[in-house]
Amino acid sequence: MKRPYTVMLIVPTGIGASIGGYAGDALSVARAIAEVADCLITHPNVLNGAQLYWNLPNALYVEGYGLDQFAAGDWGLHPVHHNRVGLILDQAIEPDLRVRHLQAADATRATLGLSLTDYIVTDMPLGVNLKTADSGATWGTVDHPDSLLRAAEQLITKAGAEAIAVVARFPDDVDSDALQNYRQGQGVDPLAGAEAVISHLVVRTFRVPCAHAPALLPLPLDATISPRSAAEELGHTFLPCVLVGLSRAPQFVLAGNAASGDLWANQVDAIVIPETACGGSAVLSLCQQSHTKIVAVRENQTRMQVPPEALGIAAIQVNSYLEALGVLVADRAGVSLESLSPAIAPLLAENTKMSGRSPEMNKQPG
């Protein structure tokens, strides 16, 4: 019996990926790969589409810091049937906007049947600040991370939360060029880097699943919005996809607590990544495993300039996600990619190349 074929799909956050750098616009890629793989491991940036989401029973929703720890072999993934999700609301969210988010949470309980604990409001405004690096990638800071951690600890220890959703008040910058470009399907998501800082902090501290949804005032209507950004134009909150994802996110386990059915890095068969974004921790960890295929997609351009060859990574470089799907199908079937080409070098030539000798030197006497 074959073991499950496992694929990791990563589109790093806040680097302007042409596919996956907007409002959950890599979700269609995840849906396609989930049909090829027995198990798909990916992260909120890929699956979160504000009020849009898709049930992928064989997908594991894993926050970015947790993905890095998993790929390094330090943490395993323990699949669950469901999690009780605790909700943290930033004290800086205005009363009306807070009600909108609570109504969204109630809707997931009543309509989708999700299990949520009581919510908690932070004891101080979190103070989110948005930053942009020289490369154009986005990041951010939080003025009061201690307030965030106190709220998370209360939900975990007193309310029995098994996963944490955070809604922080983000700055409204309606007239900024960065926001306008993002709404037109260009440039870099101005919020994504700061969102990653928030979720990383909770996962690193408590080793529980976490994801973030920004609280923002509704934007003025714009009939020219790009389809890649349109999911964020649909309502008052981006929270529903986060609650859905966290409701079935795997728990993190250490080797000493491993159980049957847990997933570990040495079980990953392939990782699919944008070609210019191969410098992330997960890729650098998994490329050291000889059996894990690194599939780098050229057409998904980013603001990073870190191709696999610059790091000495032996990657299968493909033009598109359609081509990447073909690589995964062949790999799962045990079909050599070389055999799908019209020209295959004979073994004699390959042996000569390895030995450095001429064909005549390989001949045996007699």
Structure report:
The chain is α/β, with parallel strands linked by helices. Helices cover 32% and strands 17% of the residues. The chain has helices at residues 27-36, 44-47, 64-71, 95-112, 145-157, 177-183, 192-206, 239-247, 281-286, 321-333, 347-355, 359-362, and strands at residues 6-9, 39-42, 59-61, 76-78, 85-89, 116-121, 128-132, 138-142, 163-169, 210-215, 251-253, 270-274, 293-297, 316-318. Helix 1 packs parallel to helix 10 (321-333), helix 4 crosses helix 8 (239-247) and helix 5 (145-157) crosses helix 7 (192-206).
What is the structure about, briefly put?
The protein contains 12 helices and 14 strands. With 366 residues, it is of the alpha/beta class. The strands form 4 sheets. The protein has a 6-stranded parallel beta sheet.
CA-CA gap between termini: 46 Å
Our estimate of the beta-strand percent is 15-25%
* Biggest sheet architecture: 6 strands, parallel
Radius of gyration: 22 Å
Mean pLDDT: 91
List the strand order in the largest sheet: 3-2-1-12-13-14
Report the uncertain regions. 358-366
